[in-house]
Amino acid sequence: MSTPEYTLYELVSREDNKESQTGHSPYVNKTKADLAILGVPYKSVPLTFIGVRNNLASDTKNDVVTVPTLQLSSGEYITDSFKIAEYLQKHHATEDKSLFPSPDSHASIRFLDFWIDGDLVIAIRELFRPLFWTNLDKASADYFLEFKYGNDQALLDDHLATLGSVEKLNKKAEVAREKLKTLDRLLAEAPNGGPFILGTKPSHADASLWGWYAASQVNAPVINELLWEHPSLPNVAKWVAAAKEATGIKFNFPPAKITPK
Ligand SMILES: N[C@@H](CCC(=O)N[C@@H](CS)C(=O)NCC(=O)O)C(=O)O
Questions:
Q1: Distance CA 93, CA 127 (A)
Q2: CB atoms near residue 1 (< 10 Å)
Q3: Name one GO cellular component term (predicted).
Q4: Is the distance from the beta carbon of residue 147 to the nearest atom of ligand 1 less than 6 Å?
Q5: No. of H helices and E strands in the chain?
Q6: Among the atoms of ligand 1, which is closest to the Cα of residue 80?
Q7: How much is the pLDDT for 2?
Q8: Pick from 258, 243, 161, 154: which is nearest to 203 by CA?
């Protein structure tokens, strides 16, 4: 077999078990979905937060580097999931497989990507993100607490407590479903009946949503029932089934360490 042209630097939760826990980075998940949609093979390099800040920053000579970062066979690095999507589109799109199916779609997909990473995520992330912290090794957990929670342990504890309370989860889920209704409406009007955001074929719009869907599977039993497969969001549930098939990506999160009561 020939060596893949690309190396994808991705996030893992533990230095001591790099194979077992990918999927926590929504942005890496987006790129993996893009690569799957286009059928592009790649080699994966798993890094913890500390590895990103030390090794990848040094290799790329970029102190603010993030993952996903894609390295080309020329040695050049591309950082940022949207920039990677644009690059992949330019080099691998065909008539049949495309991340931006028409020149017009670029602006609307960019808008959707901003809406997902901004508005939607604020409404849904508390239903799963704190669990990420429970899976990290000590150095990564300290980093996460400092940079994602401003070292506010009380706030993190409060968010962890929400994950342990059916009542609190239900309240958060209600707000989250309100936000997802926008998406459900969009999917209800998708060209040619969907099931993807832009119609019958997956695009970067779907990869962008997939990134967060996939990350949220760290709390799968809770979030699927309350959100992704909730009866009030039938088109979202239909999208989930189609996106799973289109990406073929499976999850390997450990069982959730918090059970709601
Ligand atoms: N806009 C970027 C965001 C990438 C990003 O924030 N990645 C996180 C992982 S989810 C990261 O690399 N964090 C490293 C750090 O916080 O030091 C993209 O779309 O790729």
A1: 35
A2: 4
A3: cytoplasm
A4: yes
A5: 13, 4
A6: 20
A7: 56
A8: 243
- Kindly state the DSSP code that residue 63 receives in the 8-state scheme: T
Q: Where in the chain is the domain with CATH 1.20.1050?
A: 105-247
State the DSSP code for 199. Answer: B
Q: What distance, in Å, lies between the first and last C-alpha atoms of the chain?
A: 50
**Residue 22 — pLDDT band, cuts 50, 70, 90?**
confident
Identity of residue 131: L
Tell me which of 1.20.1050, 1.20.58, 1.10.10, 1.10.3470 is the CATH number of domain 105-247: 1.20.1050
Ligand 1 near 66 CB (within 6 A): yes
Residue 110: CB within 6 Å of ligand 1?
no
Determine the distance separating the centroid of ligand 1 and the alpha carbon of 68, expressed in angstroms.
7
Protein residue with least CA distance to atom 1, ligand 1: 80
Which CATH homologous superfamily contains domain 6-92?
Glutaredoxin (3.40.30.10)
Residue nearest to atom 14 of ligand 1 (CA): 66
The pair of three-digit structure tokens given for residue 34, joined into one six-digit string? 């893009």
pLDDT tier at 17, thresholds 50, 70, 90: confident
CB neighbours of 37 closer than 8 A, spacing ≥ 6? 97, 99, 202, 203, 206, 207, 246, 247
Q: Which pLDDT tens digit goes with each residue over 47-91?
A: 999 999 999 999 999 999 999 999 999 999 999 999 999 999 999
